[in-house]
Amino acid sequence: MERKLPGVFITIRHYLELIRFSHTLFALPFAALSAAMAWAETPFRLRDLAGFLLCMVFARSTAMAFNRLVDREIDARNPRTAMRHLPRGILTVSQVVLFTVICGLGFVVSTLLFLPNIWPVLGAGPVLLFLLGYSYAKRFTWLSHFWLGTALALAPVAAWVAITGNFAWPPFVLAGAVILWVAGFDMIYACQDYEFDCQAGLKSLPAWLGVPMALRCAAILHAGMVIVLSCLPLVYSRLGTAYYAGIIGIAGLLIYEHLIVRPTDLSRVNEAFFHVNAVVSLGLFAVGVCDIWIL
């Protein structure tokens, strides 16, 4: 006989599903690689590691929960998203509002762990506002894909600044690659909602230019990502052989991603979005850390 989970654990599971907690794998490895690069330049502090992890989790959780709040009526009308927690009533609006506020406060408080470095505390508010602003972007601009990419690209820059207390080229180059990568795969993902976005008047590249052109644009962006990643060792000399081998592997994965998603067949979008991109981000982190700390 299957034992039922206590109510509190079921609620926690619903919250984790609401924010797609497992998708933290997309953003965390890039930020973690930036942090590893920073720790190679400055002394390691355990409290910095705690601050880094807490800020990443709270920032992403705040943004995702807020996105579900803002989009709840749109999600209810879209057949692909109608089964999400708010449209189905699994979680109430007040519950998600409270969760969003708690996570937002958790993010701000977590920046205190980086003191005496004041930059994370000063940047907490503007960063949070930018992350939340993405939820409204697709209502007025097809550049929403790049807004999302920039939102995730803030992570490697913020990690470097929080740990080192200064600005430098390496995290910005890494951030540039993240913008191109995320904007590209978000365009691919948005192809699923082409018809709905057109009917609802939402802005996305597929709705503006059509699915075939959107997929071509995504391929161009991903080619650009590989080029930008290849330039990272030019501003961060600790990266070498293992890193370049990883770049070749990433290029192969991105080619595979674009081969399995075609304008006439979007059935494998989820495989491209979830599986391939998770391997890309984790793989880059692995080869980068290997070069910095082992080789």
From TrEMBL:
The chain crosses the membrane at residues 50-70, 90-112, 118-137, 144-163, 169-192, 213-236, 242-261, 273-294. It is found in: Membrane. Its EC number is 2.5.1.39. InterPro entries: Polyprenyltransferase_UbiA-li, Prenyltransferase, UbiA_prenyltransferase, UbiA_sf. One of its GO terms (molecular function) is 4-hydroxybenzoate polyprenyltransferase activity. Its cofactor is Mg(2+). One of its GO terms (cellular component) is plasma membrane. It is an enzyme of class 2 (transferase). Keywords: Cell inner membrane, Cell membrane, Membrane, Transferase, Transmembrane, Transmembrane helix, Ubiquinone biosynthesis. Its main location: membrane. GO terms for biological process: ubiquinone biosynthetic process. It holds the Pfam family UbiA. It is a multi-pass membrane protein. Coiled coil: none annotated. Belongs to the UbiA prenyltransferase family. This is 4-hydroxybenzoate polyprenyltransferase. It comes from Thermogutta terrifontis. The lineage of its organism: Bacteria, Pseudomonadati, Planctomycetota, Planctomycetia, Pirellulales.
